[in-house]
Amino acid sequence: MTRPPTAPPSPGVTPPPTGLRDFYENPAVPVASGAARSRRQALLLARALGPVRTGTPAATILDIGCGDGTAAATAAGVLAGHRLVGVDWSQDALRRAATRIPYAVRGELTDGGLPFATGSADAVLFSEVVEHLVDPDAALDELRRVLRPGGHLMLSTPNLAAWYNRGLLLAGVQPVFSEVSMRRIHGRPGTQVVGHLRLYTARALRGFLTASGFDVLRIAGAPYHDVPRPLRPLDRAACHVPSLASILLAHARRRRE
């Protein structure tokens, strides 16, 4: 998972515990999403942007929460000709990202904390960050600020209503992707804590993006790399029904006003 570039909260918002930032600075915490779904997300954006044409400026694409740059490096191969900039608040992550992508800068996600002018970006990649945020509303406000009117937002996040989670919940088992502790996993499959604070269904994600000033063009599904091998064909098949897929890929555009 990518590291969320969270920021000090706005006045009136309860500040996150100091341990949360320390958690994401821990090198043992995963900082990259799956390569297959990073490529799938980049392909969706490449189709939306179209090829770079002679005499036409390249698009500026921000990978917000780039982590170690693995996802951005995967996307760069698909988005050749465009300018891709990785952004994260973790200095450790940025040092690693700088070995994989040409541009990696530090930025925060609230109150103008991204170091870009208003309306300066053509697209934002927001890969598996939103589920880690204390204040996702402020984050979407900041993404909307840096995007030009009509600019593209490609957001991915785990699906609370994934096909296997529906069965697990009926059996009284904590759903995959959810976490009740920052120290260890309790009551669900898996052993690794990654810091998920919020989870979305396809319906909730669509409503959240719409309320944040975006027009949702499409929600697609993607597989999850940690699904046990015998179940992976089912996981791939579930992608054809995004509301059942492991990962939700949303393509939205900043609303023109």
Secondary-structure blueprint:
Elements: H1 18-25, H2 35-49, E1 60-64, H3 70-78, E2 83-88, H4 91-97, E3 104-106, E4 121-127, H5 136-146, E5 147-158, H6 163-170, H7 202-211, E6 214-222, H8 232-238, E7 247-254
Parallel strand pairs: 1-2, 1-4, 2-3, 4-5
Antiparallel strand pairs: 5-7, 6-7
Keywords: Methyltransferase, Transferase
Region (Disordered): 1-20
Biased composition (Pro residues): 1-18
Explain this structure to me?
This protein has 257 residues and is an alpha/beta fold. The chain has one domain: Rossmann fold. The protein has helices at residues 18-25, 35-49, 70-78, 91-97, 136-146, 163-170, 202-211, 232-238; strands at residues 60-64, 83-88, 104-106, 121-127, 147-158, 214-222, 247-254. Strand 1 (60-64), helix 3 (70-78) and strand 2 form a beta-alpha-beta unit. Helix 2 crosses helix 3.
Total number of distinct structural domains: 1
The whole-number mean of residue pLDDT values reads: 88
Q: How much helicity do the residues have?
A: 25-40%
Our estimate of the beta-strand percent is 15-25%
Distance between the termini: 33 Å
Strand arrangement in the largest pleated sheet: 3-2-1-4-5-7-6
Q: SSE order, as H and E?
A: HHEHEHEEHEHHEHE
CATH class: Alpha Beta
CATH superfamily assignment? Vaccinia Virus protein VP39
How large is the radius of gyration? 17 Å
Shape estimate? globular
Using the coordinates shown, work out and report the CATH topology. Answer: Rossmann fold
Please mark out the parts with pLDDT under 50 across 5 or more consecutive residues, or reply none.
Answer: 1-18
Give the CATH architecture: 3-Layer(aba) Sandwich
Strand elements, count: 7
Number of helices: 8
Structural class call reads: alpha/beta
Biased composition (Pro residues): 1-18
Keywords: Methyltransferase, Transferase
Protein name: Class I SAM-dependent methyltransferase
GO molecular function: methyltransferase activity
